[in-house]
Please model this.
Amino acid sequence: MIDAPAFEELIRRVRAGDPAAAEELVRTYEPAIRRAVRFRLADARLGTLLDSMDICQSVLASFFVRAASGQYELESPEQLLGLLTAMARNKLASESRRQHAQRRDTRRVSAADGAAEMVADPDDSPSTVVAARDLLQEVRRRLSPDERRLLEMRNQGSEWTAIAASLGGGAEALRRRLSRALDRVARELGLDDEP
Model:
């Protein structure tokens, strides 16, 4: 894994929207997320309907939106890995509930015998990088000017107490305000599975 100073720098760069940092984070953590998802896909009998990459991309999209806001207080690579695998478990559980709620019979759906693996390139395509950047821009666009100011101050590395001192109000109240705003935008964009 990554040592502590390098990890802190990586998270700071991810919060700032640095595409190279996002790429490094994906390269480092994606295999572990996909392993966790593949294991659970077999248990949930959803392996014929979903690919580990589907869940992994959904997890990373949600993570980057929330990380850009400074919503996560991550102190170690292990803590980040735990967060990402928990997000993957939750997204997979939501998908499983959705499949069962719609009374789908996963035994009747068949995969194309590995055809998807033969078509898909495992590296991020330029369109994936652009889509991630566009997603972050859309998140920022949907925030109010006050919410964007909170986001920018947080992305610049300001602690909540310093933000509260600068803008007035309580640190926890401002943190909750930004968190609720990001939850709202994530729902609007369909990034969260729960209503």
